Amino acid sequence: MSYSCKVIQIDLNSTSNWNLFSCMTFFFLFFFTSIFCQENDSILIDQSYQAGIEFYKKSEYSNAIQYWKKELNLKEKYFGTDHLEVARTNYNLGSAYWQLNMYEQSKTHFNRSLFIRLPHFDLKDKQATTNILNTYKFLGESLKELGDFDQALLIYDASLSKINENHPSFPGLLKYTIITRKKIKNFKR
Questions:
Q1: pTM to 2 decimals?
Q2: Are 102 and 130 within 8 A, CB to CB?
Q3: Which one-letter DSSP state was computed for residue 72?
Q4: Second label for 127, Cα 20 to 30 Å away, from 7, 59, 169, 170?
């Protein structure tokens, strides 16, 4: 199912008799056309997200990517590139690329997601904290898979600096940091 919006094009110079009724009709059509297009795009965003989720659950990651890219383009168009909804879609894309061992693309999308989420970091908001820590973790893992162990360590250390030892994510992040340090030692031997 796809939606499209028809563009109403009116040449204001060719109309000789613009009266109040004509102006009101023009603005009425413009206003409702723009609302209709936004509603359709909102539906398309939701459908793309849901289709991506369903394909991801079925391990059909390439199809999930296809739908999430469509979702990302629409979200960036309406929300801008630094909106938290855009961060969520970038995270989903990073996860799907990760599953396909496409670590460079995974790194790119996790990095974008983290860049958007960090200004909103608040330890009191458990969901936001979890989202940011997961993004750090998978960005670090992507870097590690690309052989960039030093950068991966910087990412893990940055994530650990955001939380205290009592945070539930701390042990897991510490584990990733220790494993990466061991890999660096083995790699440099």
A1: 0.74
A2: no
A3: H
A4: 59
